[in-house]
Amino acid sequence: MVTVQRVRVRWGPASRGAAQANARRGLDRPVLLPDPLPPGEVVAHEVLFDEATGYRPHDEVLADSERDPGVRLMRRDGRLIVSRSAGGCVAYPRRMPASRLFTLAPGEVGRYRANFRLLVTTCPCNPSWYYESWSVHISNGPVDPTRFRHGPVDHDVDHRVSLYGSSQRR
């Protein structure tokens, strides 16, 4: 069994200041997994904290879903190869092709963190967008419901960037 938890925080361009950043600080941390998880080869726990709902969490559990949880998974000889998805309507950072993040041995947990400026529409006459910060945890094998929140990770990839135009992330 593979377990993926993607915690996303979403906000609009009007919420770029320090006070608004403080309101969402730390929301992209992992949360406790539902217990029990449904059976399935791949179980995804999607959690969204959206500014539009006052950052109240909305979550759903998907077993063997076709929905892309931000990563691609491939099994090889008992190991789990985790790659970044190419992405959808990402305005910044530039969309990159799918690339390998890490390989998990049985029992290992990996974390992938990223943030994005995403287009709401594809019309060049009205380029509006929103922002998301992600924390994605993946386990190769059964996982204790508290492991993502309290346990160590075996692999950690951080692709967060400054979304507001500076050259470095602070």
Question: What keywords describe this structure?
Answer:
mainly beta; seven-stranded mixed β-sheet; 2 helices; 10 strands; 6% helix; globular
Describe this structure in words.
There is one protein chain. It contains two helices and ten strands; from the N terminus they run E-H-E-E-E-E-E-E-E-E-H-E. With 170 residues, the chain is mainly β. 6% of the residues lie in helices and 44% in strands. The strands form two sheets. Strands 1, 2, 3, 6, 8, 9 and 10 form a seven-stranded mixed sheet that branches. Strands 4-5-7 form a three-stranded antiparallel sheet, with no helix packed on it. The protein has helices at residues 18-24, 147-150; strands at 2-11, 42-50, 57-63, 71-76, 79-84, 90-92, 99-104, 109-119, 129-140, 155-159. The chain starts with a strand and ends in an 11-residue tail after the last strand. It is globular, with a radius of gyration of 16 Å.
Mean pLDDT: 84
Distance linking N and C termini: 37 Å
Going by helix content, strand content and strand pairing, the class is: mainly beta
Helix content: under 10%
Strand content: 35-45%
User: What integer value in Å does the Rg equal?
Assistant: 16 Å
Number of strands: 10
**Uncertain regions spanning at least 5 consecutive residues:** none
Name the overall outline. Answer: globular
Largest β-sheet summary: 7 strands, mixed
Number of helices: 2
Give the helices and strands as they follow along the chain. Answer: EHEEEEEEEEHE
